[in-house]
Amino acid sequence: MDYTIFAVATFIVALLVFGGVFLIRPRRSEPPQQQPRQEEQATADSGTAVAEPTETESAEEPAEGSGAVAEAEPATPATAEPAAPEVETPPPSAGRMVRLRSRLARSQNVLGRGLLNLLASDKLDDDTWEEIEDTLVTADVGVESATAIVENLRTKVKVLGSRTQDDVRQLLREELLTQIDPNADRAVRTRAETDRPAVIMVVGVNGTGKTTTAGKLARVLVGDGRSAVLGAADTFRAAAVDQLETWGNRVGAPVVRKDEGADPGSVAFDAVARATEDGADTVIIDTAGRLHTKTGLMDELGKVKRVVEKKSDVDEVLLVLDATTGQNGLRQAQVFSEVVNITGIVLTKLDGTAKGGIVLQVQRELGVPVKLVGLGEGADDLAPFDPETFVDAILDGE
């Protein structure tokens, strides 16, 4: 009895154990690739594929060929290095005025032809000679120079007697050259006698082309194989400083500058020091455009010169005059000559006026030669003044 009960109990326990193992055994999971296939199908239907990053792929860089679209970080714009200005090689100064003669001839043709026609007239009476003198005065030759020219011509015509066109032209040519003085020293001192850079100050009122002249002069020097340093001492006008730096960059001439409103004497002094350190041939100092009616500003110009002279002698003081201003330009020259020792005149815009007689008048009044002339707006239109080329351009035309 007991044995039977024990057997039945054992059977029941075994049955329960076997059935429990079967019931609690976990169901076999789906193949790992099945779920991704379902997601891929779902995203394909929507037209957008989403890829999870792997160990070798970042979330910002989707796998190649997966078709995944990911938002990338905005690219940092590259900062381009500013291009260095191209350094130009200007032509030499020799022969510039000859090459620019046609421009001068066009502007001076009225003066030359008018004089030649009057002198070649059949009757050279007092009225004709007076008209000749008026023509000269109108051309800004000046009363004293015009009177001297007429008196000398009257004497020569009376002595020679002949008044052919060639004779008249030759007489007038000789007289104009005498008044201009072809033997005057017109060389710009761009090299000092001692072992130091030559110092050139460029002065004049605003509007005459002063800063442009300083830049063009640097081109002349570089074209002649010299080295130059520019001093931007016109510290009252930022535009003038930038303009001068542009001229310097074009020919590789260093420019010494300071902030707007800085002491111009300090800039000029530093420019001379820089030229000395670099072993440059010449330093060109562009000064502020002084109004000749302002005594204080003129005094300051004298101060700039004195400050420079603490470092070096000043070899040239070039006064820039606008040839079209006539008598006003002459008054400017007189005032400037009282403040600083003017050594030479630069006449700009000489191609834009028929009043080229200012060349004669300014030399007669100041005893200072015209050394440079501006015959156009081009970078290389500043030329050493040549009296014979000037007179021939007046008389011959094109």
UniProtKB/TrEMBL annotation:
Entries under CDD domains matching the protein: FtsY (cd17874)
Keyword terms of this UniProt record: Cell membrane, Cytoplasm, GTP-binding, Hydrolase, Membrane, Nucleotide-binding, Receptor, Transmembrane, Transmembrane helix
Pfam family, one: SRP54_N
Biased composition (Low complexity): 64-87
GO (cellular component) term, any one: plasma membrane
SMART domains xrefs: AAA (SM00382), SRP54 (SM00962), SRP54_N (SM00963)
Record-linked InterPro entries: AAA+_ATPase, P-loop_NTPase, Signal_recog_particl_SRP54_hlx, SR_rcpt_FtsY, SRP/SRP_N, SRP54_GTPase_dom, SRP54_N_sf
EC top class named in words: hydrolase
EC number: 3.6.5.4
One MF term in the entry's GO annotations: signal recognition particle binding
Chief location bin: membrane
Start and end residues of each stretch annotated as Disordered: 29-94
UniProt GO BP: SRP-dependent cotranslational protein targeting to membrane
Limits of the SRP54-type proteins GTP-binding domain: 369-382
List of residues binding GTP: 204-211, 286-290, 348-351
UniProt topology in membrane: Peripheral membrane protein
Entry similarity comment: Belongs to the GTP-binding SRP family. FtsY subfamily.
Function: Involved in targeting and insertion of nascent membrane proteins into the cytoplasmic membrane. Acts as a receptor for the complex formed by the signal recognition particle (SRP) and the ribosome-nascent chain (RNC).
Name of protein: Signal recognition particle receptor FtsY
Lineage summary: Bacteria, Bacillati, Actinomycetota, Actinomycetes, Streptosporangiales
Gene designation per UniProt: ftsY
